[in-house]
Amino acid sequence: LGRAGRLADAEAFIRDSIFHDEPVIWRSLLASCRIHRDMERGQLVADRIMELQPSSSASYVNLYNIYLDAGELSLASKIRDVMKERGVKKEPGLSWIELRSGVHSFVAGDKCHPESNTIYAKLADMLSKIDKLTATDTSGTKSDDITRNEQSWMNWHSEKLAVALGLIHLPQSAPIRVMKNLRVCRDCHLAMKLISKSENREIILRDAIRFHHFRDGSCSCADYW
Question: Where is the DYW domain (predicted)?
Answer without folding.
Answer: 144-225
